[in-house]
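Good morning,

Attaching, inline, the backbone tokens for the sequence recovery test we're adding to the shared suite. The designed sequence is right after.
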């Protein structure tokens, strides 16, 4: 079913199917994320909401769940413009992410060669712990 969704025309039915799958747990959610990334990378014409807008709106809320680190790593591995935008959206919402998850997000970004995504945090008010984590990671990535 996920492959059908990846190849679907971008219309309201596709939007609603993706939304439905995102509301499910586990495998269904991963299928929806994968399909949405493929749709976003096809650069389909937007309806009221584009796939990328939907991705950027849905993904940050997933960053507060127990498997958030897996989500972040999966997005980093996709290595597409749409996945990078989703990662930026998560990072912009970092005040609601647990400190230990934030640290892992930053480590993954650096390890995957995506230190530039951390610039999405410029100008955001971060907790003392998150600021320290970010400074440390940025100094390591510049070495």
């Amino acid at each position: 079913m996920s492959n059908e969704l990846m190849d679907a025309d971008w219309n309201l039915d596709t939007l609603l199917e993706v939304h439905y799958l995102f509301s499910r747990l586990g495998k269904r959610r991963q299928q929806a994320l994968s399909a949405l990334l493929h749709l976003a990378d096809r650069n389909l014409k937007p309806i009221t909401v584009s796939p990328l807008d939907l991705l950027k709106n849905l993904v940050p809320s997933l960053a507060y769940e127990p498997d958030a680190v897996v989500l972040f790593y999966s997005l980093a591995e996709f290595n597409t413009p749409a996945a990078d935008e989703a990662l930026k959206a998560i990072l912009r919402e970092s005040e609601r992410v647990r400190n230990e998850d934030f640290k892992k997000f930053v480590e993954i970004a650096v390890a995957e060669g995506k230190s530039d995504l951390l610039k999405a945090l410029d100008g955001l008010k971060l907790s003392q712990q998150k600021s320290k984590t970010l400074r440390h990671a940025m100094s390591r990535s510049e070495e």
